Amino acid sequence: MPENTAPDGATSIGAPHIEFRDVVKRFGDNTVLNDLNFTVAKGERVTLIGPSGSGKTTILRLVMTLEELTGGYIHVGGAPLQYEDQGGKRVRVSDKTRRRTTTQIGMVFQHFNLFPNMTVLENITEAPIHVMGLSKAEAISKAEGLLEKVGMSDKRDFNPSQLSGGQQQRVAIARALAMDPEILLLDEVTSALDPELVGEVLAVLKDIAAETDISMLIVTHEMQFARDVSDRVMMFDQGSIVEEGSPEKIFSDPGHQRTRDFLHAVL
Amino acid sequence: MDGVIGFFEQLGPNIEILGARMPQILEGVQVTVLAAAFGGLLALVISFVFGIAQTVKLGAVRIIARIFVEFFRGTSLVVQLFWLAFVLPQLPYPFGWQLAPLAIGVLALGLNYGAYGAEVVRGSIGSVPKGQYEALSALSLSPVRGMFRVIIPQAWALMIPSLSNLWIQLLKGSAIVSTVLLYDLYFRVEQVRDQTGTWFAFLFALVAYYLVAWVIVIIMNALEVRAKHKIGRGPALSDSLGTLLRPPGGKNVARGAMV
């Protein structure tokens, strides 16, 4: 993985890779996250579980800056992501600086969101060429390597609409990895798939988890997958962390009734 | 020699008159086609410029675009035409331009229908699924690049049916450019009217405009099939030639028939 490219070089060894500090997110009158504090260490895989509407996806979208923070701060690699504290004043970080920080963050979406007007290969090479500044040849050879990794080499010149959901999601994973992300956000990546296609996507992700040291923040309903890849599981309900711990602890011996009820319902 | 009975009695002689005047009528068709083609092209450019301008982040740009659209959409095409033809030449230097009639027609049609088209472009850009914008953001692609590489190619496929309608309306609206001394199809039909009677002359005009409109429909259907194929919705153009000939007013081509 490339070195952290935080704009002000503020990265220090041991600093959390992602830090939520007093994070508040409201949609109108609806408070989704209330004073949320947590950190993700470099290379750590953290899975967020909990009932729908508990704010898990909002957390990922805040890290990707797809949603605007209502209050508090998020730091990525030590650098402020959306807002920074300047002597007690909360100041908005410019779009340009935000985009520079988010370049190190990749996201895979529930509905893949591949670009339908581009081939599989073009989907993967677009950002490396135009954001990272790779030459076309470099980007293509990189994309081919990633397509091989996700088992989609034979589909490089296909259009997304010609692929199954599982295949599209594998391409979307390759597209996110092509930017050499240091943080990967997985937002219910198998929820839109037919049951028989879930396995192929999870298998690819497990390989990536095993072969890289990318920090991952995962929202999933696949509890076995969560158990397999996570270092830590956080149980959410109504915008707060109910409890957190190792997957063994959370899945085998949850401390809260709320967690037990949830796991009972989904397992 | 007017009326329905007159129409049939005089059919033979009228066709002869029409035949004799055909060179001038064809000149009129040529002028109408030129006005519709260049007016349509100008309208397309204006649609994109002002449609996209209404989606940018900068408030001032959005407001200027909005005012332009409201002005040209809200004021009559005929009045705009007269302004360009009769008021513009009287303005003090350097604005006192006396434009050629065709230029006036093209300009008025382009501005007026471009204002409508800008709304179509703006709406289509807004109709591209939100997930596409989010994917662009997640890949840190710049908004400008994302707009031209990802959003507009998808919006283009959505906007073609509406733009096609506007272009046909522009063609039909072009009949009023004869009021600023442009010798278009309508002007030529007017010329033969006193010889052939209103029934015959205007029936001919209906058919003539319909046929030109049909050409527009075929062009736009082809563009639509191609645009949809490019975003993975529908067959290639070469596989759907049979569906292109649908007449104006027919159902939009290739809707829901695939995927």
Describe this structure in words.
- The complex is a heterodimer of chains A (267) and B (259).
- Chain A has 267 residues and is of the alpha/beta class.
- In chain A, 35% of the residues lie in helices and 25% in strands.
- Chain A has nine helices and twelve strands.
- Chain A has helices at 56-63, 95-102, 120-130, 136-149, 165-177, 195-211, 223-229, 247-252, 257-266, and strands at 18-27, 30-40, 45-49, 71-76, 79-80, 83-86, 89-92, 105-108, 183-187, 215-219, 232-237, 240-245.
- In chain A, strands 8-9-10-3-11-12 form a six-stranded mixed sheet, sandwiched between helices. A four-stranded antiparallel sheet of chain A has the order 2-1-4-5, covered by helices on one side.
- In chain A, strand 11 and strand 12 (240-245) form a beta hairpin.
- Chain B has 259 residues and is mostly helical.
- Chain B has a single domain (3-245), classed as MetI-like (MetI-like fold, Orthogonal Bundle).
- Helices cover 73% and strands 0% of the residues of chain B.
- Chain B has helices at residues 3-9, 11-53, 59-74, 77-87, 101-127, 130-138, 143-173, 185-196, 198-230.
- In chain B, helix 8 runs antiparallel to helix 9.
- Chain B is flat and about 70 Å long.
- Classes of the chains: A alpha/beta (267), B mainly alpha (259).
- Chain A binds chain B through residues 64-66, 99-100, 102-103, 105-107, 109, 111, 113-118, 126-127, 130-131, 159-162, 175-176, 179, and chain B through 129, 131-132, 134-135, 137-142, 145, 149-150, 153-154, 230-233, 259.
Unreliable stretches of chain A: 1-12
Q: What percent of the residues of chain B sit in helical stretches (DSSP H or I)?
A: over 70%
Contiguous helical run count of chain A: 9
Number of domains of chain B: 1
**How large is the radius of gyration of chain B?**
22 Å
Straight-line distance between termini of chain A: 35 Å
- What is the CATH-assigned architecture of chain B? Orthogonal Bundle
How many beta-strand elements of chain B? 0
Largest beta-sheet details of chain B: none
